[in-house]
């Protein structure tokens, strides 16, 4: 089956460069943006001493790109000359790069993309490109081979699934990821040695309702199975009723045999155990119920990106 999905760009890194007279920093405005739409970057110029700053920094744009291991198109809307700025001046500009000018390839895998300010190698934004499967039917995916990449402010975790153990939960999780339901949520419950819990829509910025109490507006029938709740296992959170799972999930940081056959385990981390450990080490505070599990600083789930594998014909 042929398909041509939209692409998404996930920001992974931005670096600063120091000059004698000023510092230059290039950062992505959004962590995940559609490659079909504009890519926005913030350029910061911090003047340390009176300096003649190139005009292009103030009114133009000149970027070199790299897609995968190959040179990409050059974005050059330059301006000649220079402008004198006094020490202490700080300028921030929003740069808009049309997605069409990046000429990103269609791919079902992640692709590294680098944007570098011309002649300034250390002023670099490193990005990742991943497919959006909104145009691909869930029924066309090989659920045993399709993966989901969880992009957090602590790193990334890749998940593979157990459709033979919990097909309903696997389909639900991938469906929600395809719909970008998880994008912008947070891991609201972190207990080192036990688990990390996320997926609640009430944790999004501006959302109303108590974190940990949200759902997608429906529930999923329980699929308890013989998968042991051990480190790296992905399982579904629920309330007291067995069939009350919706969107909230948890990733085991340790072994929890008391959850076996009581919660629907439906996947496991394929990579990202270092990220799992970093999140588990996050500082937490007491919740209103007296549990030390609320992260002091937000643990963001920037995006849950489906990496599709189609069924063989």
Task: Provide a short characterization of the protein structure.
The protein has helices at residues 56-59, 99-102, 167-178, 273-280, and strands spanning 7-14, 16-18, 22-28, 32-34, 39-47, 51-54, 61-67, 70-77, 82-85, 90-97, 111-117, 124-131, 147-152, 155-161, 185-186, 189-191, 195-198, 233-236, 249-252, 265-271, 284-286, 292-295, 300-307. The protein is mainly beta and 313 residues long.
List the helices and strands and how they pair.
Blueprint: E1 7-14, E2 16-18, E3 22-28, E4 32-34, E5 39-47, E6 51-54, H1 56-59, E7 61-67, E8 70-77, E9 82-85, E10 90-97, H2 99-102, E11 111-117, E12 124-131, E13 147-152, E14 155-161, H3 167-178, E15 185-186, E16 189-191, E17 195-198, E18 233-236, E19 249-252, E20 265-271, H4 273-280, E21 284-286, E22 292-295, E23 300-307
Would you mind describing this structure in some detail?
The protein has 313 residues and is mostly beta strands. It has helices at 56-59, 99-102, 167-178, 273-280; strands at 7-14, 16-18, 22-28, 32-34, 39-47, 51-54, 61-67, 70-77, 82-85, 90-97, 111-117, 124-131, 147-152, 155-161, 185-186, 189-191, 195-198, 233-236, 249-252, 265-271, 284-286, 292-295, 300-307. It has a nine-stranded antiparallel sheet. A six-stranded antiparallel sheet has the order 4-1-12-11-7-8. It has a four-stranded antiparallel sheet with strand order 2-3-5-10. A hairpin with a 6-residue loop joins strand 11 and strand 12 (124-131). Mean pLDDT is 88; it is low at 1-5 and 12-18.
């Amino acid at each position: 089956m042929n398909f041509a999905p939209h692409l998404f760009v996930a920001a992974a890194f931005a670096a600063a460069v120091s000059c004698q007279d000023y510092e230059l920093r290039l950062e992505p405005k959004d962590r995940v943006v559609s490659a079909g739409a504009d890519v926005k970057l913030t350029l910061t110029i911090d003047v340390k001493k009176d300096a003649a700053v190139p005009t292009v920094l103030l009114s133009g744009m000149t970027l070199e790109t790299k897609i995968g291991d190959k040179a990409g198109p050059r974005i050059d809307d330059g301006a000649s000359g220079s402008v004198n700025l006094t020490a202490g001046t700080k300028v921030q500009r929003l740069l808009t790069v049309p997605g069409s000018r990046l000429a990103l390839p269609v791919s079902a895998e992640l692709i590294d993309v680098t944007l570098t300010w011309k002649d300034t190698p250390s002023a670099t934004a490193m990005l990742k490109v991943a497919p959006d499967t909104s145009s691909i039917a869930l029924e066309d995916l090989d659920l045993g081979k399709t993966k989901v990449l969880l992009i957090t402010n602590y790193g990334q975790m890749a998940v593979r699934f157990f459709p033979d153990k919990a097909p309903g939960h696997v389909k639900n999780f991938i469906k929600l990821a395809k719909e970008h339901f998880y994008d912008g949520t947070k891991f609201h419950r972190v207990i080192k040695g036990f688990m990390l819990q996320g997926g609640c829509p009430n944790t999004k910025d501006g959302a109303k309702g108590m974190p940990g109490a949200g759902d997608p507006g429906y529930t999923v029938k329980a699929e308890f199975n013989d998968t042991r709740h051990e480190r790296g296992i992905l399982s579904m959170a629920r309330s007291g009723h067995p069939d009350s799972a919706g969107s909230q999930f948890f990733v085991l940081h340790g072994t929890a045999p008391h959850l076996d056959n009581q919660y629907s385990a439906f996947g496991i981390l394929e990579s990202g155990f270092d990220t799992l450990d970093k999140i588990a080490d996050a500082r937490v505070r007491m919740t209103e119920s007296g549990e030390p599990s609320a992260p002091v600083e937000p643990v963001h789930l920037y995006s849950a990106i489906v990496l599709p594998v189609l069924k063989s014909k």
